[in-house]
Amino acid sequence: MVTRRRSKKKKKTKRKKQSSKEKEKYQTFINLPCDLLQLVISRLPLKDNIRASAVCKTWHEACVSLRVIHTSPWLIYFSKTDDSYELYDPSMQKNYNLHFPELSGFRVCYSKDGWLLMYNPNSYQLLFFNPFTRDCVPMPTLWMAYDQRMAFSCAPTSTSCLLFTVTSVTWNYITIKTYFANAKEWKTSVFKNRLQRNFNTFEQIVFSNGVFYCLTNTGCLALFDPSLNYWNVLPGRPPKRPGSNGCFMTEHQGEIFLIYMYRHMNPTVLKLDLTSFEWAERKTLGGLTIYASALSSESRAEQQKQSGIWNCLCLSVFHGFKRTCIYYKVDEESEVCFKWKKQNPYENIWIMPPLNLIDLPLFDHRI
Description:
Layout: H1 2-25, H2 34-41, H3 46-52, H4 57-66, E1 74-78, E2 84-89, E3 94-99, E4 107-112, E5 115-120, E6 125-130, E7 135-139, E8 150-152, E9 162-169, E10 173-180, E11 187-192, E12 202-208, E13 211-216, E14 221-225, E15 230-233, E16 244-252, E17 255-262, E18 268-272, E19 279-282, E20 288-291, E21 298-301, E22 312-319, E23 322-329, H5 336-339, E24 348-351
């Protein structure tokens, strides 16, 4: 009896070993442990994430939990010689090579809500262009100087879209032109010039809280309220150290941020107090990531704290012949000032990609 029991136990253990071996033999990616599955899915781009979510219920839950809705901006580079353009996705470190013959002779002016504002200095033609859908929205012609800045309030598909630029500055007067979407012509407004005499040009324009904030190269901040047709120069200047070789200005949920770059020092980050209109230096961005470019910048409240992409200043750089980005942690010491060099403002700009990238032919041009 004892021997029979032992033999039965041996048969059971053999069956268990065989069944476990068979499971290992026929194990697929569907049977991956949850932590390993999440690690794999976290490295997928949005397009592949959506495809993977259709595999099974377990994969669907993992994909949805890791899907990034608020994507980071992309960087678009403009060629000086032809109609070739390069889009760079910093979150996936991937490049896309595109051609837009319809933009031949145009240079970029501004970017917002996934649209580019382009200008042709030969024909004075202005148009909105979406590089992801190739949609074009032409605007009335307007002559612009090489260093003249222009901005718009929101996407041209909105009826509240407003274009803004300062066209002329004399000793006594300043001339502003605005254009509402679907209007027949530009509107001209003339105001008394209260800028300081050492004014040269406007470097940054940001739209926030229904107002255009305009920063001069000397640090003066002026604002234009289109609803009141009101222009005012604010008192005081931001604390700017000697040796600055560039600046960036952006907004996030109504807050205005200003970054000064230096040749041999770390960048300084300033925030505008909207009650006293005074600039205060910040040692942290409070979890924000600012994607900085000369003509317009983007800001995002990043959720990727574990990856380190938060509380950062993201800058475009050249490493050899490769275009890429570097991240400067605002609350840490860094040598980014030795890596970053001031570039031609019309060489690149940040732009927000649409959420429906999987429906676009963009991925056929990956390099």
